[in-house]
Amino acid sequence: MNKHKTSLTNEISKREIKHNQLANELAKEGIVLLKNDNTLPFNNTSKLALYGAGAIFTVKGGTGSGEVRERHSVSIYEGLVNHGFEITS
User: What is the reported pTM?
Assistant: First the structure.
């Protein structure tokens, strides 16, 4: 049994408000701003290290209504290799 009551009204629940505040706090802590000191754009002779599963298993959408199904999508890794970059990791 679902312990959270669902509502068909437009009223925002206390739970939704709490989750929204938490999501905003986490987003603020997780955002990284980078200063570009003539690093970007990379040239094709660059060697790059990619970290994390998302480099190869790049997410194109989500689940449910955000789900994306296609025959093939280009991962970050594949796109960089296709453009002449050497991946060192």
Answer: 0.50
